[in-house]
Amino acid sequence: MNPLRALSPQRCVTYRRVSSAEQEKASGLGRQREKCEAFAQLHSLEVVADRFEDRSGTLPMAERPELTAALTDCLEHGAGILLVEERTRVARDEYAAFDALRSFQHAGVKVLHADGSNGASDPAALLADTIGHGLAAYDRRVIVARMAAGRRAKAEREPRSRAQGGKLPYGYRRTRTGGVEVDLDAAAEVGRAFELVRAGRTVREAAATLGWHPTMLARVLKRPEYKQAGDWRIVDPRVWNAAQAALAGRRKRAV
Fold first, then answer.
1. Three-state SS string across 43-62, please?
2. What is the value of pTM for the model shown?
């Protein structure tokens, strides 16, 4: 005898998800609850359980304990529907989405979106849903890439922007208040390194003079931050450019 109840299309379990405190402000659990409850009332659905968690939407179902519990709730309470605010609540990655949707589908549970983006179960509707999850994943990747590019560009323009994390270029140090300032002793070494290279020393010769490892010096010589305008400038732009020209000249001769 099957101890589980037959699944009813009029009973549902709601699932809500946020991935960070920032997202909680923009599209929080409370807002998701309101949308799900409004949808359930409009379509005469009985909400028999509610699950929520703070987990990334890129994680597979096996790493989302509350989403897994939502499936168990559906089976135990005879709910034929998992109700979410919109498709990205299930997942923000197409592979994670298909993993979760397949689990619910195999159990006979239909996933509905409170924003109304629900189609029929015909091939065209399933294709549209697949495309929707793919587009959601694409949007996430574009946003992540744009933010990363912005952080890199800001760090290149201004060493001070690294105050909140990341490794500072040699010659700078963090202040007690979280800012960035010039480390005078280290900055003097950096300036000396550029002067040596500009004067004709090879990277290896200059490193030996300073007591540095050649690889470290090579990295330092590539950094444009040192010639940036402002009170955090370490190397005069003319010296920096002359050093680059000297290095380029040696590379050409080597070829």
1. CCCEEEEEEEEECCCCCCHH
2. 0.51
Residue 16 host element (H or E)? strand 8-18
CA distances from 95 to 52, 91, 102 (A): 21, 9, 11
Question: Which strand ranges, in their side-by-side order, compose the sheet holding 46-54?
Answer: 46-54, 8-18, 79-84, 110-113
Q: What's the token pair of residue 8? A: 């009813």
**Hey, what amino acid is at 228?**
Q
- Hey, what are 212's tokens? 């540095």
Question: For residues 127, 132, 133 and 136, what is the CA-based torsion angle, rounded to 10 degrees?
Answer: 160
The residue extents of the domains of the chain are 8-143, 172-254
Residue 179 C-beta-side C-alpha neighbours within 13 Å:
5
**CA torsion 69→75→77→78, rounded to 10°?**
150
Residue 150 · residue 213 · CB < 8 Å:
no
* HEC readout, 137-194: HHHHHHHHHHHHHHHHHHHHHCHHHHHHCCCCCCCEEECCCCCEEECHHHHHHHHHHH
d(CA 164, CA 171): 17
> What pLDDT sits at residue 78?
95
235 three-class SS = coil
Distances in Å between the Cα of 69 and the Cα atoms of 6, 36, 73, 78, 177 are: 18, 18, 6, 14, 44
CATH class label, 8-143: alpha beta
- List, for residues 219-254, the tens digit of each pLDDT value: 999 999 898 867 788 999 999 999 999 988 877 665
Rounded Cα distance, 204 and 224, in Å: 20
